[in-house]
Give the backbone structure.
Amino acid sequence: MPDGGRRGIVAGGIIALVLVAFGVFVLPFAFTTPPPIITRFVATRAFSPGNDQGRAVATVAIRLSEPSNVVITVKDPETGEVVARLADGAEVVRRRTLAVRWDGTGPDGRTVPDGTYAIDLSARAGEKKFSKSRRIVVDTTAPSPAVTVQSVAAGCIASADAPGETATITFSAPTAGVSSEPRSIGARGTTSWTWDGRDSRGRRVAPGIQPVRTIARDDRGNRASRVLTCWVAHLNARAVPGQPASGDAVGVAIAGRGNPEVTLSLRRRLGTPGDPVGTRILGDPVGEEVTGPASSARITIPAGVRPAELWLLAAAGPRRQALIGFREGG
């Protein structure tokens, strides 16, 4: 074969390869796939209808690439029942974006039960169609941790345990104007706060019953509050003996150095610190109070009165007062 023929074949092959490469790399960009009708579809994941302090309304937002008929419904995923129609598709949406709101009510105007619902979106523009679904949670139930308040000599220890969902817990002593920083715990988590019995200016509050509030809040704004009692003592004392019997003389042992003068009195036991606010803790006095040095002061439990039915109050001055309970002796 002449050299010219060979050169022609080689040149033709090169041209063919160039054309193939052009088709592979250039043509896809020249003929791009048109965008879908809906290019963005977002919705509130969870909300609490009717909650003035939280997320009370859900929002569904879409972005359209061209004018379309849009239908947005909320359905019960188990039954398929339509509980709300947010866009009915009757008119062509010509805006680039569309946002609709759902207040959590059904066809009867009442708030739907708590649960997970489906937000179904469908759109049509001529022969083009689009459909997609999102999940949304209706949650009107507040976290419910187990709350306890324990009285200690230096103040109170408040605890919150297992709220059932992720929650933010805040503790406070409202009459003292002090509170903890909000802290987040998991569904089975626990957290606690120790209050030293001082107010916001660092001064000791008056001894006696003080309220301690616990607030549990979820990210939908559902909120539950409990207020329990605490006995602020500012005095570390215990009964001696710890398990007296009816008719026994009882004194106190006070932690620390010295032998302060104390006043001992007995009161009927109606409740226990840690009970809800409003519960009476102390009843009527039983017998006469006794005053003297802590090492020798004694008060007698009247015959026929069960010690477990009494509180022993030990006061060392006006700013220190311990509330002591005892169990019955053998």
About this structure: Residues 3-25 form the longest helix (23 residues). Confidence is low (pLDDT under 50) at residues 18-31.
